[in-house]
Amino acid sequence: MKHTELTLCEQMHIGVQAVERRLRLVGVTREDCATLKRFKAVITANVEELLDEFYDVLANVDEVARLIGDKEGLMRLKRSLRNYVLTLFEGEYGLDYVQSRLRVGLVHKRIGVTPKLFMTAVLHLTRMLRQRIRSEVPGMEQQMEVMHALERVVFFDLALIFDTYIQSLMDEILYRSEELTTYAKELEQMVAERTRELEDLARLDGLTGIPNQRHFHAELRREFLRAQRMGSHFSLVYMDLDNFKIANDTWGHKVGDQLLKNVAECLKGCCREGDVTARCGGDEFCAILMDTGIHGAQQWAHRLIEAFDASEERYGVTLSIGIAQFEPILDHEPEQLLKRADEAMYRAKLAEGHAVVSAECDEDALLCEGRPPPRDAKRRGGRELRPPRAKREPDAAAEQAGMAEASGA
């Protein structure tokens, strides 16, 4: 149930029996109640003078003056104090009385009256009431009876009021704790999101959105070790974009970026769940095809070429694709498999247009990859695979320059 649906007594679990127990603890008896009630009229006569005197004293305390604020605030406080003094001598201290005292504590806590200021105010009020008792109650014995009864009821009130202070502090601590818990959860979620973003930045290529070279090498090693351990197989595809530098220089970097994005989209569209694609730098891309032999990798490469040819603008760019299947006898480290796929890709670059070469093929047998591309490949920008032209032996400087250009430098 909400706090707004409960009284202060109900919120603090104070019932009739709890009130009686509290009265007994501070020693308030039926005789005390009767004594205070009997002398109420004489003690509270001209109560307005008592209130003026009380606030004249407190107004000299800077902290209290700031809390009072203005004339209207002072009038409200005087009305509250008048009611407090009158009920103090009622002689009835049941649940209604306790509720009013709890309300006093709550109001003072809310307006910022600290316990030390409240105790100071109670001390001044009690002193003034004693002076009234001495002047208005006849006989020393009766004066002492009234003073002792008043003292016990004031202690009864203070216990209730400070319980309210404590309860308010506990509620505030609980509220702050819930706030901190909520904030911690939000912060944890924010950190997790930022961590994922940082992981993506470290894992993905900023332009194409597919994994970068660093992540690719980590995935290649993981799959390599799995294949060694499980005796499974997979194929590695290494691909380079022919004439990319010419298209990039001729049509601008915007066109070059769009070509790279198109290739990345084609790669994602052709891969299955579990396969890994990556941009390995410049205009080179790689793919790890899980549980795929050389023939399946060749078919995959042809599907990739068809997907790329289906794009609207290719600006004369074609794909040279090298494929190598993991072979435990040949590949003792992932780098060896990568080197075989890379070498196959460079052999594919010797042919004009699209070309797919497997590492298992000899240098004079480019047609061993399997089924050829569609018959209309030439019209759509590709061409059928055919053996490469005889390779001339370049001089060392020309060979070095050619290698640099082919790698996208």
Question: Your description of this structure?
Answer:
The structure is a single chain. With 409 residues, the protein is of the alpha+beta class. The protein has 16 helices and five strands. It has a five-stranded mixed sheet with strand order 2-3-1-4-5, with helices on both faces. β4, α15 (334-348) and β5 form a beta-alpha-beta unit. α8 (95-110) crosses α10 (140-203). The longest helix has 64 residues, at 140-203. The protein is rod-shaped. The two termini are 71 Å apart.
Gist of the model:
This protein has 409 residues and is an alpha+beta fold.
Instruction: State the separation between the terminal residues, measured CA to CA.
Output: 71 Å
**Secondary structure tally, helices:** 16
| Strand content range | 5-15%
Percent of residues in helices comes to 55-70%
Structural class: alpha+beta
Low-confidence stretches: 363-409
Instruction: Give me the strand/helix succession.
Output: HHHHHHHHHHHEHHEEHEHEH
Instruction: Summarize model confidence as the mean pLDDT.
Output: 82
How is the main sheet built?
Answer: 5 strands, mixed
Instruction: List the strand order in the largest sheet.
Output: 2-3-1-4-5
What's the gyration radius in Å? 45 Å
The assembly state of the depicted protein chains is: single chain
Shape: rod-shaped
Number of strands: 5
